[in-house]
Amino acid sequence: MSKKPNKQAPLRTAAEAELAHSLKRKQRPAEELLHELQVRQLELEMQNEELRRAQVELEKSRDRYIDFYDFAPVGYLTLDHKGVIGEINLTGAAMLRVERNKLPHHRFAQFVATEDRERWHRHFLNVLTRDDTLTCELALLRGDGSRTYTRLDCLRLSRADKTPVVRIVLADITERKQSEETVRAQEEFFRLIAESAEDFIAVLDLEGRRLYNSPSYAKLFGDVEALKGTDSFADIHPDDRERTKRVFKETVQSGVGHRLNFRFVLANGSVRYMESCGGLIRNSQGQALRVVVVSRDITERIKYDEEIRNLAFYDTLTQLPNRRLLNDRLDQAMAASKRSSLYGALMFFDLDNFKSLNDTHGHSVGDLLLVEVAHRINHCVREVDTVARLGGDEFVVVLSELDMDKAKSTTQASIVAEKIRAVLAEPYALNIQHEGKAETTIEHHCTSSIGVVLFINHEASSEDIIKWADMAMYQAKEAGGNMIRFSDSKA
To answer: Which of 173, 216, 404, 486 has its CA 20 to 30 A from that of 418?
Structure first.
């Protein structure tokens, strides 16, 4: 604290002057003079006490100012018009990692990182020409060699009798910069993932409008930038659209993503099968903000699965159901017969002179005949019926929903069987292409032997029905072929 000033001297001088003046006046009684002196003495003591209290409050105010200035959470410093530090508080010195008493008379620019010095110079010159507060952010190199990031709020103060100075509030923004850098690095990381991934990544608003689409979307829609703001549901196949919208709304409402398959219809009319899963992004208050959808094109997988299914259930040559699928279709027809009490029928076909064609012209020509046979049989039955190839030159037809009466059902089955027998007996024109030779056409005549068995209400197993039809077919073949035989077994 500073030494207290002697504020009693002026009062003593005034008192002595007053005493001298009173002596010139008429002599007063001693008691009156004594009383007056005592009053004056008391007044002086009260004034002295008031002065002491004022001095204490002044020193407290000064101490508070020093505390507020030196220990403020931000740095305060003053630069002259040349950018030299005039004064700085303790916080500012701590931010620069330099002892406070060593900072005055040093240029502030020496603490600015090399890459920011030119920008600081332009900013400082701009401050000297303005009357408002200007702000900039700089990287500083501290006294211990470490780096920090700061925000500087600068204000020029002009005085009539002095050159201008610049007051600066220095705030440490290192943590914020590091957070921004972390976010920037994460964004760059995910951007690289999105741009490199084969998957399709989309960010949608809560209404399903596109905010971002990864570059992979160019494979489907061309210009990715043109997708911004468009309705993501507009390109979905009409049969899948409402279901997709419903799942999207459930994700927004519950925050739980759902895996979904749907189809995109492209501008050229082609269809791509997509497998997709969405996830909800929330803001800091937990409110729904946007939806991220990751999709992949599964068109080739769908085709592959279909091929596998075809290999498992369909004959590769004729594309008819094979024995495995036939058994399933026959079981379905028998179950339907039980529900409806309508008869069904199974026909077993074998070509009569197929072997001679293979022996003469080879299996490739025989395959042409089998494909044509399958085509002709298909045109003789209804969509609800099943035509299957068991292998070689053996075919099976399952007729469903004939009649409740067995005799009428037998008649209906006979009509269909006769229609097929007749069409299979018509000549076949087969085009043969040998390597290095012109295409030639041969005519082949081929008949069939047909065995038929009726069934109803699971009265026999599917294996027995096929076996009985097979036996009836052999009876037709042994009788000379090109005819129909009904099984006399009770189905």
So the answer is: 404
